[in-house]
Amino acid sequence: MKKLLTAKELRQKYRPDKILMDIQSSFNDNKSKIIDLFSLPSSPLAKYKRKKQLSILVEEKSTVDFTIIHELVDTLSDAIYFMKLPKSKRTKITQRLSMFESQLIENQLLRINLLLEDEELGSPTPWTDEKGQVKIASSHHGLDMAFEILSLVRIDLEEESYYWKNISRTGYLTGLQLSMGSFFQYLKNLGMTQKDQITLVQQLFDTLDVDWEEGERENIKISLQQPALALHNGKQRLIDSKKNVSNYPEYLNKNIIDEITELSANYKKRLRRF
C-alpha cells in the first residue's frame, strides 16, 4: 500500500504556510492604499451610506462612510495577494494550493475509511462458531461513539473530495474568483448597482496594476463577479445546512455536535479559501 503522507508532510511538500504569510504581508503592505482609493470622492462608494445617527461631530457634506470602507477592504485580505501576482505565477500558486488541499482531503478520507471498513476493530476476541460464522465480542461504547463521529466527519470529507474533483480547471482568474466572493457579496448587500461595482473593480485593478488586459476586463461580470458569487454562496449554503442538529444522532451531546458543526464549517471556509 502506498504510504499516505501526513498533514505535516504535505505542508512541507507544498509549503502553504509560506503562501499564507505572503498573503498577509501583501494585505498589510497595500491596505492603506486601498483605503485611500475607496475614500476618494470619485469612488462609487461615496454614493452608498449606512443609516446615520444625528451627530454634531459629523458633517452633512461628508461623502465617506469609513465603516463601509474598512469593512469592504477587509473582505479583500486574500484577494490583494492574487491581484499583485503576474498571471503565470497566479496560476501556479493557485494550482499548488489546490493540490495541497485536495491531497490533504483524500489522505484523511483514506485513513478514516481504513478504520471504518474494519467491522472487527475494537473487538478483542473475534472467532468463528461451529457454523463457521464470525462471532464478534461487543466493542466499547466509547469506541462506538468515536466511530459514529468519524462517520460524520467522513461525510464532510466526501463532500470536499467531490468539490475538489469537480472544480473547474485552474486558470489565472481562479485565485481571484475564490477570494473575491465576500467582496462582491458585500457590495450586493450594500445595494450597489452593477455599473458601480464594475467601476469600483476597475479602479481597484488600476491602482494595484493587476495583470489583466483592459479589453478582457470588460468581462468582469461574467469572468469574475458571477463565478465569485456562485462559489461564495454555494459554500455558505453548505455551512448553513450543517447547522441543522436534527441531522445528527440523538445520543451525541450538544458539545460534540457543536464541534462537528464547527469542523464542517472550517473545511468549507479554510480549504475552499483559495
Task: Report on this structure.
It contains eleven helices and two strands. The protein is mainly α. The chain has one domain. Strands 1-2 form a two-stranded antiparallel sheet. A hairpin with a 5-residue loop joins strand 1 (127-128) and strand 2 (134-135). The longest helix has 30 residues, at 87-116. The two termini are 31 Å apart. The model is unreliable at 52-60 (pLDDT under 50).
Keywords:
274 residues; mainly alpha; two-stranded antiparallel sheet; 2 strands; 64% helix
The ordered H/E elements are HHHHHEEHHHHHH
Uncertain segments: 52-60
Domain count, please report it. Answer: 1
Overall geometry comes to elongated
Count of DSSP H/I helices: 11
- Tell me, rounded to a whole number, the average pLDDT: 83
- Using only CA atoms, what is the Rg? 24 Å
For the biggest β-sheet, the strand order reads 1-2
The overall strand count is 2
Ends apart, CA distance between termini: 31 Å
Beta-strand content = under 5%
